[in-house]
Amino acid sequence: MEDKFIYFDHASTTPVKPEVLEAMLPYFTHKFGNASSIYSIGRESKKAIEEARDKVAAAIGAQPREIFFTGSGSESDNWAIKGVAYSNKSKGNHIITTAIEHHAVLHTCQYLESDGFEVTYLPVDENGLITAEQVRAAIKPTTILITVMFANNEIGTIQPIAEIGSIAREKGIYFHTDAVQAIGNIDIKVNDMNIDLLSLSAHKFYGPKGVGALYVRKGVKLASYLHGGAQERGRRASTENIAGIVGMGKAIELASANIEAYNKKLVDLRDRTIDEITKKVPFIKLNGDRNKRLPGNVNFSFQYIEGESLLLMLDLKGIAASSGSACTSGSLDPSHVLLAIGLPHEIAHGSLRITFGEQNTHQDVDYLMEVLPMIVGRLREMSPLYEALANKA
């Protein structure tokens, strides 16, 4: 193992910023009071929660009372989808989503199918995009929810959220978006985009793990998710994760204040990396739309190699990257996202996702381009398919 370490997996998780940790620390020690208590340190905790709620609301253009804290982005997705489904089943049982959603959405929809709901999974094009007209065409009299992720966690493709939201609003159908990858990378204002429910997670934008939030537009009919206490205005019971919530508030405040400069930096690193890999490595495919993609996302498939071997050899060179979603990296099956955009299994298996963050530099890209072509070449030398291609040439 080399001493060098470069982290290229910010879509999986980010480090906690020092300012965020500093804001959190008092709530582990002398400000540890339960926010449901009426004595002074309990009131301090309650005030800290509400200040964090204000910050999350301000970041997405919402009202503080429309923000509910959860334990994760996955929990937020579950609550939004199940909550709308069960609260509105007297109106219908049909849900529209896409084939490339995070499993927190897909598995939730599949669970609802087992309980009598009908789900339409819209196919995507070769870049992972759907159109607003696809959504319009899929709507039925029984449709009660449209759930489309803002930006894909693997290939970075950004969907036409505002247009979809406009159609949903026109038809009187609730619209949820999983914005876990987008918050902190894209400036989102829920009212401008006709979003009714939005999921986010702190650890994707330099906050702590184990805390998320769900935006619920005022007037949305949504069942409570956890029962047993009056926390979150009676809609999600359990003693609040005060330190985590405070950290989330600080992290989203910092992200919102710096989003323009941060995006510019990530786009620069992203575009240079795409150009360099395209020039220096043959038999590759860029996955996701070239322009309608997250600022820091690069995803390539490399023919004739296995993604897992590529990741292990990059790790030996001090580079941490991913072959797709961290939530499914233990699976031997190829990514459902890459299959949905039309890649055959053998090419989908050879994918590499690089996602940039605040600490990455052009020197990091230089190092990547120093080692990546060499590693790909070495792995292809061990591939019988590549050897047959070379002999044929």
Automatic annotation (TrEMBL):
<feature type="binding site">
    <location>
        <position position="239"/>
    </location>
    <ligand>
        <name>pyridoxal 5'-phosphate</name>
    </ligand>
</feature>
<feature type="binding site">
    <location>
        <position position="181"/>
    </location>
    <ligand>
        <name>pyridoxal 5'-phosphate</name>
    </ligand>
</feature>
<comment type="similarity">
    <text>Belongs to the class-V pyridoxal-phosphate-dependent aminotransferase family. NifS/IscS subfamily.</text>
</comment>
<comment type="pathway">
    <text>Cofactor biosynthesis; iron-sulfur cluster biosynthesis.</text>
</comment>
<dbReference type="GO" id="GO:0030170">
    <property type="term" value="F:pyridoxal phosphate binding"/>
</dbReference>
<dbReference type="InterPro" id="IPR015424">
    <property type="entry name" value="PyrdxlP-dep_Trfase"/>
</dbReference>
<feature type="binding site" description="via persulfide group">
    <location>
        <position position="327"/>
    </location>
    <ligand>
        <name>[2Fe-2S] cluster</name>
    </ligand>
</feature>
<dbReference type="InterPro" id="IPR020578">
    <property type="entry name" value="Aminotrans_V_PyrdxlP_BS"/>
</dbReference>
<dbReference type="InterPro" id="IPR000192">
    <property type="entry name" value="Aminotrans_V_dom"/>
</dbReference>
<feature type="binding site">
    <location>
        <position position="153"/>
    </location>
    <ligand>
        <name>pyridoxal 5'-phosphate</name>
    </ligand>
</feature>
<feature type="binding site">
    <location>
        <begin position="201"/>
        <end position="203"/>
    </location>
    <ligand>
        <name>pyridoxal 5'-phosphate</name>
    </ligand>
</feature>
<dbReference type="GO" id="GO:0051537">
    <property type="term" value="F:2 iron, 2 sulfur cluster binding"/>
</dbReference>
<comment type="function">
    <text>Master enzyme that delivers sulfur to a number of partners involved in Fe-S cluster assembly, tRNA modification or cofactor biosynthesis. Catalyzes the removal of elemental sulfur atoms from cysteine to produce alanine. Functions as a sulfur delivery protein for Fe-S cluster synthesis onto IscU, an Fe-S scaffold assembly protein, as well as other S acceptor proteins.</text>
</comment>
<keyword id="KW-0001">2Fe-2S</keyword>
<feature type="binding site">
    <location>
        <begin position="73"/>
        <end position="74"/>
    </location>
    <ligand>
        <name>pyridoxal 5'-phosphate</name>
    </ligand>
</feature>
<comment type="subunit">
    <text>Homodimer. Forms a heterotetramer with IscU, interacts with other sulfur acceptors.</text>
</comment>
<keyword id="KW-0663">Pyridoxal phosphate</keyword>
<dbReference type="InterPro" id="IPR016454">
    <property type="entry name" value="Cysteine_dSase"/>
</dbReference>
<keyword id="KW-0963">Cytoplasm</keyword>
<dbReference type="InterPro" id="IPR015422">
    <property type="entry name" value="PyrdxlP-dep_Trfase_small"/>
</dbReference>
<dbReference type="Pfam" id="PF00266">
    <property type="entry name" value="Aminotran_5"/>
</dbReference>
<dbReference type="GO" id="GO:0044571">
    <property type="term" value="P:[2Fe-2S] cluster assembly"/>
</dbReference>
<keyword id="KW-0808">Transferase</keyword>
<protein>
    <recommendedName>
        <fullName>Cysteine desulfurase IscS</fullName>
        <ecNumber>2.8.1.7</ecNumber>
    </recommendedName>
</protein>
<keyword id="KW-0408">Iron</keyword>
<dbReference type="InterPro" id="IPR015421">
    <property type="entry name" value="PyrdxlP-dep_Trfase_major"/>
</dbReference>
<dbReference type="GO" id="GO:1990221">
    <property type="term" value="C:L-cysteine desulfurase complex"/>
</dbReference>
<keyword id="KW-0479">Metal-binding</keyword>
<keyword id="KW-0411">Iron-sulfur</keyword>
<feature type="modified residue" description="N6-(pyridoxal phosphate)lysine">
    <location>
        <position position="204"/>
    </location>
</feature>
<dbReference type="InterPro" id="IPR010240">
    <property type="entry name" value="Cys_deSase_IscS"/>
</dbReference>
<feature type="active site" description="Cysteine persulfide intermediate">
    <location>
        <position position="327"/>
    </location>
</feature>
<dbReference type="GO" id="GO:0031071">
    <property type="term" value="F:cysteine desulfurase activity"/>
</dbReference>
<feature type="domain" description="Aminotransferase class V">
    <location>
        <begin position="6"/>
        <end position="368"/>
    </location>
</feature>
<dbReference type="GO" id="GO:0006520">
    <property type="term" value="P:amino acid metabolic process"/>
</dbReference>
<dbReference type="GO" id="GO:0046872">
    <property type="term" value="F:metal ion binding"/>
</dbReference>
<dbReference type="InterPro" id="IPR017772">
    <property type="entry name" value="Cys_deSase_NifS_bac/arc"/>
</dbReference>
